[in-house]
Design goal:
eight-stranded mixed β-sheet, 2 domains, 17 strands, binds flavin-adenine dinucleotide, D-Amino Acid Oxidase, Chain A, domain 2
């Protein structure tokens, strides 16, 4: 049996970041990843500005496109485009971005083992035993960053988040579509209950997808194929589907010596489905808490307090924004397409220039000015997954 101070399960953005930060702090750490790296992760790969500050040196080479234009299309096909001078997001290719993050962890001193799945996690007194498909490890702390399908939650009975779902494909496109989407992200709402469809450009491919926080309320797959065909003229693509884990209530992401991070913790933005930032930031905070526990005996509950104080207020605003927007998304798509200022607010949120609750406040003000809409909204308002 091999021993480390900490083990991290899963080499996505959450796990690779936690492993890097632990190694940088001088903690002996092993990062275990079941897939062979680089591995595919269904994802649009859009990084908001706040995520950039959490990346290791040299990340710039991973940013493959820099959209400045944001087109928002409503239920009747009406569209409005907000154009910024600075990119409002940056797009990475997830398989190589995640490889870059795990290589940075390795350079910092973490032991990185891909193609090694954790199959059992047993918490004993003062130690955790991890059985993988070809070894056994004894550690003091575990970061469970094993994503939406992870086994760690089952092992320690960590409450599962709610699951939305998204389906996407990477579609190689010709020059005219490339030119059309060179600097533009497109979002379509109104026809996808509790969700939206997107087009995100990355060099010579378009990432095209449909996601929903209530995926069982409509034929997600069929709508996806229709959408791809409407954008590219062909539905001959190979789609990938994956959950969107999110929560409507805060659950402490700590179970004894096991800290949950990223999708495994379930702290995705329940309005936009942005998850990479939460994954990176929770990876940082989990590493910080373990370092403080190992060096100074601080309680691991510090991690829970940090998540609660630092990003639960914003995630809560995202939930409220979702509850405000999605029940009447068709109507809101009319309002938003007539109100580029609201769209612009949304981009400001993505760029970190405006707190979420301001966007929500501006949207609520529109609702209050319209009594009929307010009544309709009250009738429709039921939480996703409830
Ligand atoms: C279609 C789609 C589009 C999205 N687009 C965006 C976007 O544009 N921008 C954005 O911010 N977010 C987006 N998201 C969300 C984002 O992809 C996730 O929130 C993010 O990947 C979470 O990172 P993570 O490190 O927590 O988990 P993951 O990236 O899922 O990594 C978990 C890792 O754990 C490994 N693992 C699992 N079990 C084990 C085990 N037993 N042993 C060892 N390893 C294990 C897995 O192989 C995997 O590599 C999207 C999600 C979907 C589904």
């Amino acid at each position: 049996m091999k021993s480390y101070m900490a083990a991290v399960i899963g080499a996505g953005p959450a796990g690779a970041t936690a492993a890097r930060r632990l190694a940088e702090a001088g903690i002996s750490v092993i990062l275990l990843e079941k897939a062979r790296m680089p591995r595919v992760k269904p994802c649009g790969g859009a990084l908001t500005h706040r995520a950039l500050g959490l990346l290791p040196d040299g990340y710039q080479a991973q940013l493959k496109s820099h959209p400045t234009d944001w087109t928002f299309q409503g239920r009747r096909g009406q569209a409005v485009t907000v154009i910024r001078t600075d990119p409002y997001c940056h797009v990475v290719e997830r398989q190589f971005f995640d490889l870059f993050l795990s290589e940075a962890a390795e350079r910092a001193g973490a032991a990185v083992h891909d193609q090694e799945a954790v199959v059992r996690l047993s918490v004993g007194s003062g130690a955790v035993t991890l059985d993988t498909d070809h070894d056994q490890y004894n550690v003091r702390y575990v970061v469970a960053a094993d994503g939406a399908h992870g086994m760690a939650a089952r092992a320690v009975r960590f409450p599962r988040p709610l699951n939305g779902a998204a389906i996407e494909a990477e579609v190689p496109v010709d020059q005219s579509l490339r030119d059309r989407y060179r600097r533009r992200v497109e979002i379509h709402v109104g026809s996808y209950p509790w969700g939206y469809a997107w087009v995100i450009p990355r060099h010579d491919i378009l990432n095209i997808g449909v996601g929903s926080f209530r995926p069982h309320t409509f034929p997600l797959k069929r709508r996806f194929f229709e959408f791809v065909e409407a954008i590219t003229g062909t539905a001959d693509v190979r789609p990938l589907a994956y959950p969107l884990p999110y929560r409507l209530r805060f659950v402490a992401p700590v179970a004894g010596p096991v800290l949950f991070a990223g999708d495994a913790a379930g702290y995705m933005d329940a309005f936009s489905a942005e998850g990479i930032y939460s994954a990176l930031r929770s990876g940082h905070l989990a590493a910080q808490a373990i370092t403080a526990a190992a060096e100074s005996g601080h309680p691991l509950s510090q991690y829970s307090s940090a998540l609660y104080e630092e990003f639960w207020p914003s995630l809560k605003s995202a939930i409220k924004m979702g509850l405000l927007f999605y029940p009447l998304a068709g109507y809101w798509s009319d309002v938003f397409t007539q109100s580029p200022d609201l769209l612009s607010d949304y981009l400001d949120v993505a760029m970190g220039a405006l707190p979420y609750n301001e966007l929500r406040r501006h949207t609520e003000m529109r609702l209050l000015k319209n009594p009929q809409l307010l009544t309709a909204h009250r009738q429709h308002r039921r939480g996703p997954g409830q």
